[in-house]
Amino acid sequence: MKQAPSAAASPVSRTPRNKESRASEGTAIIQVRGLEKTYSTARGSLTLFHGLDFDVYPGELVAIVGQSGAGKSTLLHILGALDTPTAGTVHCASTNTAELTQRQAATFRNSTIGYVWQFHYLLPEFTALENVAMPLLARGQDRRAALAEASKWMREVGLEDRSEHRPGELSGGEQQRIALARALVGGPRLLLADEPTGDLDETTAGRVFDLLERLHVTHGLTSIIVTHNLELAARCARTLRLEHGRLAPWKTASQG
Ligand SMILES: Nc1ncnc2c1ncn2[C@@H]1O[C@H](COP(=O)(O)OP(=O)(O)O)[C@@H](O)[C@H]1O
Ligand SMILES: [Mg+2]
Fold it and tell me: Does 45 contact ligand 1 (Cβ within 6 A)?
């Protein structure tokens, strides 16, 4: 799906927590129960999830791995109110996202979720700075204030000297750093990233992931990252594997 990332209001100051501390921290920010998704296709129905149940707690950095076609993107779309489940409930930041109208879902996405995709989807005719400001402009924020806020984010991702560049004048890694800035400019609580480094070489992928991790911590985000890169997944406090319609903890060899 190709919606532009969005973002939101209140700056958050939650401290990131790892899995060891999850039991003590109370309310999940994402609560999924009995999630099912079935597509009807010309060749019959295709069931992606067989009743997924999972929670994500504030401050967690969760990786989701799984083969191509397992349903990772579909899962992120449902979590981020871009798609609806066939059955089950998804509570995301105290909102039952399956019950939102299209308009409410759009407002929810703009205020609560920051998205990053494998491809940056920056608008080619606008400068990097204008692209970063886009979620704020979409909310109706005053242009000057939106550009000033976007400018802070250009610094935050280390690209203030690329503000006037068009996306086509930036490297792949720079484009993804701009996409991250655009996802976070409005102060979302949740960052959903779908193969954010999938189109980058190994070194650049590592750097973009470093930045994502740093922003996750400094902005008190709760983040879910879909990735094919098992090395990067292993750096996350928790990794889940989506396979045959079920989600289970995934362990690296070093974790035994
Ligand atoms: N709108 C749709 N209609 C029918 N099938 C779909 C639709 N969207 C995705 N699929 C199918 O669902 C499966 C999971 O897709 P996706 O979530 O993109 O997987 P992943 O991101 O893990 O590669 C794929 O087999 C895909 O072809
Ligand atoms: Mg996908």
Answer: no
